[in-house]
Amino acid sequence: MSQEYTLAVLDWARAAGLVMPLRERVFVVEQGVPAELELDEFDPVCLHAVVRTTDGEVIATGRLLPDGHVGRMAVDAGWRGRGIGGEVLEVLVEEARGRGFEVVELNAQVVAMPFYARHGFTAFGERFMEAGIPHRAMRRVLRA
Q1: What domains are defined for the chain?
Q2: What is the mean pLDDT of residues 34-48?
Q3: Which of 118, 119, 116 is nearest to 137 (CA)?
Q4: Does 13 score more than 90 pLDDT?
Q5: Counting beta carbons within 10 angstroms of the beta carbon of residue 44, is it exposed (0 to 12), middle (13 to 18) or buried (19 or more)?
Q6: If exposure means fewest CB atoms within 10 Å of the residue's CB, which of 99, 110, 134, 144 is most exposed?
Q7: What is the pLDDT averaged over residues 11-23?
Q8: Hey, how many other C-beta atoms are within 10 angstroms of the C-beta on 19?
Q9: What b-and-e string marks burial along 60-92, b requiring 16 or more CB atoms within 10 Å of the CB?
Q10: pLDDT reading at 144 higher than 90
């Protein structure tokens, strides 16, 4: 990991105030997701990966649901393409592995499927719409 930023895994009580401004910028402003869909009942029971610059700016996040699903992956526009999203994803996968999950699943935006494929995820099922954006389910097997 770069010395420009740090990555921590936090509970919702510590993560909420940090990640919501980034999630609102990425999902609501950039992607047009309705604001009322962005915050849901699952956040309080998830683990949240939070990446901050040395000056405290939150530049990436993602969450692990109690059932082993990864979601709400977001990287600030100015920090994309530097591998930070991959670091967030791998930390969440390791958290799932540590909790005994044999498979990690996620609903990938279709445009992001190549990113997830590079991290060992394979698509299954049909495309579907979520928050007005085309998605496809993907999974990564952790144990044979």
Answers
A1: 5-101 (3.40.630.30)
A2: 92
A3: 116
A4: yes
A5: exposed
A6: 144
A7: 97
A8: 24
A9: bbbbbbeebbbbbbbbbeebeeeebbebbbebb
A10: no
> How far from each other are the two terminal CA atoms of the chain, in whole angstroms?
29
Question: How distant, in Å, are the alpha carbons of 5, 48, 50, 88, 100 from that of 66?
Answer: 27, 11, 17, 17, 11
Amino acid in the structure at residue 41: E
**C-beta of residue 121 within 8 angstroms of C-beta of residue 108:** yes
Contact 64, 15 (CB under 8 A): no
Read off the pTM: 0.94
Per-residue pLDDT band at 3 (split at 50, 70, 90): confident
Q: Distance between CA 23 and CA 27 in Å, rounded? A: 6
